[in-house]
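User: I'm curious whether this sequence folds into something compact or stays loose and floppy. Could you predict its structure so I can see for myself?
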Amino acid sequence: MYNRVASLFVFTTLFFLMAGIFCVSLIHFSQDPTLSGQLHTIESELGVARKVARVQEARYNELRQLAALHLPNIPELRNLNDTLRSPASVLVLNSSDFLFEQGRDYFRVKKYTEAAAVFQSLINEFPTSVHTIPAYFFLGESQYLLKQYESCLQTVEGMVELFPSNELTGHILFRLVDVMMLRGKDRQATQILKVIQKEFAADSELKIRAAQRERELGEIL
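Assistant: Here's the prediction. I'll summarize afterward.
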């Protein structure tokens, strides 16, 4: 009996001791800015990993649906056909949606290299998506902010060729103006601003913004 009581006392003492150590460690962890920063980074990376997993799941189901559409109409394969179709019909996720959301998340936290890679992937894989034009715009912005001016110019040229009358094309043309000015080509920049005012005359915001930049350039010249 005595041994049991002694054992219980030792166990209880160890339990409270470990609990105390855990509490002290937890308080220290929460108060240490370095450890808190590491925790925040891990949580952010986990969030990105979850989104990537969801994108891969959506792509997998799209491939299953595509395979189902191409199966021959043979009775023996009918059940397989139905099985392949059902997950895609239930799944309401769209891979281009997730890619665009992921790209914007990177852009918001100024991870422009990662953002550019995601937006380029979206453009390549989903050229007819509703997110394609905004993806071009954010790709050009990311490239400009990364000082990848040649790549930025190519993206702008692509938007002008594919979506000449889209409002976002008008906005990205200002990056073309910025690149020209960085290269000391102020007169070419002025010509681009005139084009914006002419081609996007119906958009008052773009027209006013371009006219203001042209006046500023005129004062410099």
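Summary: Residues 55 and 147 are 29 Å apart (CA to CA). The domain at 94-150 is CATH 1.25.40.10 (Serine Threonine Protein Phosphatase 5, Tetratricopeptide repeat).
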